Amino acid sequence: MKTDATKVAPKADRKGGTASLFADAVRGAFASFVTDTAFPCLGAKAALNAGSYVLLTYEELASPNVVHSLHADLVAFTKSEIARTSEYASFIAVFRNPRPIVERTFERLLWSQLQQLHDLDREKSEWDPNVSSDPDDPHFSFSIGGHAYYVIGLHEDSSRLARRFPWPAMVFNPHAQFEKLRSDGKWRRMQETIRARDIALQGSVNPMLSDFGKASEARQYSGRQVEEGWHPEFQAGAGTSGGCPFAH
User: Fold this and answer.
1) What's the predicted TM-score (pTM) here?
2) What share of the chain is helix, strand, coil (3-state, %, to 5)?
3) Strand partners, 11
4) Quick one: pLDDT band at residue 184, thresholds 50, 70, 90?
5) Label partner for 164 (CA 20 to 30 A): which of 21, 44, 96, 195?
6) For the purposes of burial, counting CB atoms within 10 Å of the CB of 157, is it exposed (0-12), middle (13-18) or buried (19 or more)?
7) Of 108, 212, 117, 211, which Cα lies nearest the Cα of 155?
């Protein structure tokens, strides 16, 4: 599976702005990425088909100039009808830079971005009480605006083919939707199908995948196969309480 950003033909920009042209190119590339027949994540395909996602672009991953707008957009998504009512909902943040980027650098910047978001968020919101704020805890999930999210990192150097995307990106999926799928009895079959598709794509299942409550999902966020004893550079502070996401 391959997404070639150079082949995306963005729509004409009425304002002539490069930011709008970039956003159009990203949206086209993301649609091609998810609709590729080899792409394994059925949840992402469902969200795209239903239009139950928000995709926004930003200048640079982990830049202090990005955090306020990204945080505001995530909080708005948390309160949106899409997040409240859709069975499959996603917020996708795509960053123009840095490019190129290698796997360990992406991992470091992803956690730096999450730390910046949390530092801003904790001034206004408690951590979602349904999940842990400790990234070593098997019940950890990232929280924004009082709601838990499972985070997926995408970038061009990912060792997992299903996570290779021309620009650095972070996909935020509401944790509550996974719990609903479990309660509805849809979870296990969907998970098995996605993992089988991932094996067909890459020849192996992602070694970082585990069920929620068995190992911290923090190990899955960047997409890199982390070492035993790995710990992210992230610390939840005052104001807090206590993977394809559909395959984790």
Assistant:
1) 0.88
2) 40, 15, 45
3) none
4) confident
5) 21
6) middle
7) 108
The answer to whether residues 133 and 241 touch, using CB atoms and an 8 Å cutoff, is: yes
Is 100 within 8 Å of 156 (Cβ atoms)?
Answer: yes
Q: What is the mean pLDDT of the chain?
A: 88
- Residues 48 and 54: their CA atoms lie apart, in Å, by 10
Distance CA 85, CA 112 (A): 30
Residue 150 main-chain phi, psi, to 5 deg = -95, 130
* Contacts of residue 94, Cβ cutoff 8 Å, sequence gap at least 6: 26, 30, 55, 56, 57, 58, 165, 167, 168, 169
SS (H, E, C) 157-221: CCCCHHHCCCCCEEEEEEHHHHHHHHHCCCHHHHHHHHHHHHHHHHCCCCCCCCCCCCCCHHHHC
Q: Is the peptide bond before 207 cis (omega within 30 degrees of 0)?
A: no
Which CA distances in Å does 76 have to 48, 116, 145, 161, 245?
19, 17, 9, 31, 21
**Which carries the bigger pLDDT value, residue 193 or residue 214?**
193
Average pLDDT value for residue range 14-42: 89
